Amino acid sequence: MIMGKKVGIGGEKIAIINIKGVIVDSKKAVKEIRRYADNPSVKAILLRVDSPGGGVVASQEIYEELRWIKEKKGKKIVTSMGTVAASGGYYVACASDLIVANPGTLTGSIGVIMEFANLEGLFKKIGVEGVVIKSGKHKDIGSPFRGLTKEEKELLQGIIDDVYAQFVSAVVEGRKMKPETVKGLADGRIYTGRQAKELGLVDELGTLQDAINITARLAGIKGEPVIVERESGFPFLDLLKEEFFGGIGEGLRKGNISLEYRYIL
User: Fold this and answer.
1) Separation between Cα atoms, residue 216 and residue 45, nearest integer Å
2) DSSP string of 39-72?
3) Calpha distance 29→61 (Å, rounded)
4) What would the mean pLDDT of 39-67 be, rounded to a whole number?
5) What are 54's strand-pairing partners?
6) Cβ atoms of residues 242 and 24 within 8 Å
7) H helices present in the chain, as ranges
8) Domain 13-262 fold
């Protein structure tokens, strides 16, 4: 049971923002963060993360928005980790003043993945021939009609390395850790919440209620805080939308290659 008054009037407030499922788009989270930015009664943001990560840019935009409200608006930020808060889910948590994980939370997975299908062998078997007309030799890089050349693999690895370095920098800055320490932990592996605490990737072990109490204390709230949380009206429909439009739709929109901060479950 979550203690705290779930009403929107009176008292000093903690706003709970949920990051659930695959991080496909940042708009909803950014809109919520901005909603509380200039509300003086909202003293802190509690980020509830239950996500394996997702798109690189979406994760970065949420992270930067959280840093903005913390540094420019003076709001305290605490992250409460649910079942999974990995890869991009961990990235956004690094903007927090403090991270609380359950002992059995799966977190970490600091790294980047790019994946696409090479269907060249299948197409040859079934007699499908791809016709490509392009302006440059790399314009169809990642095409399912052919494999990658050595040069193309090196180009894509360079992109992975750059985006990986951005992730490491966010962890170094957010967790106040040495780059070499983070790199030693950032090989894509996952950790339990208890392991993550021992390694310095999270600060405390506890439940969502523990995180609320910690947030109230950190924000200097006296007495019982008012909890502000937007309810999701149709979670099943949201899930379908995420799975269909976020999966198939995003795949079609972005083409054959995806670049993600994501832990593959």
Assistant:
1) 10
2) -TTEEEEEEEEEE-EEEHHHHHHHHHHHHHHHHT
3) 9
4) 96
5) 23, 261
6) yes
7) 27-37, 56-71, 88-93, 120-126, 150-175, 179-185, 193-199, 208-218, 235-241, 250-254
8) 2-enoyl-CoA Hydratase; Chain A, domain 1 (3.90.226)
- 28-32, 63-67, 137-141, 172-176: which has the minimum mean pLDDT? 137-141
Under 8 Å between Cβ of 141 and 118: no
- Percent of all residues in the chain with a pLDDT value above 70, rounded to a whole number: 83
pLDDT at 250 over 50: no
First and final CA of the chain: distance in angstroms?
Answer: 28
Instruction: Grade residue 259 by pLDDT with cuts at 50, 70 and 90.
Output: low
C-alpha 166, offset from chain centre = 14
Domain boundaries, the chain: 13-262
Residue with tokens 């992270």: 63
Contact 192, 103 (CB under 8 A): yes
At 117, the amino acid letter reads A
Just list the catalytic residues: 87, 139
**pLDDT higher than 80, residue 256:** no
Q: What is the pLDDT of residues 167-210, one digit of tens each?
A: 999 999 999 999 999 999 999 999 999 999 999 999 999 999 99
CA 103 vs CA 11, 120, 195, 207, 208: distances in Å: 32, 45, 8, 9, 12
pLDDT at residue 241 above 80?
Answer: no
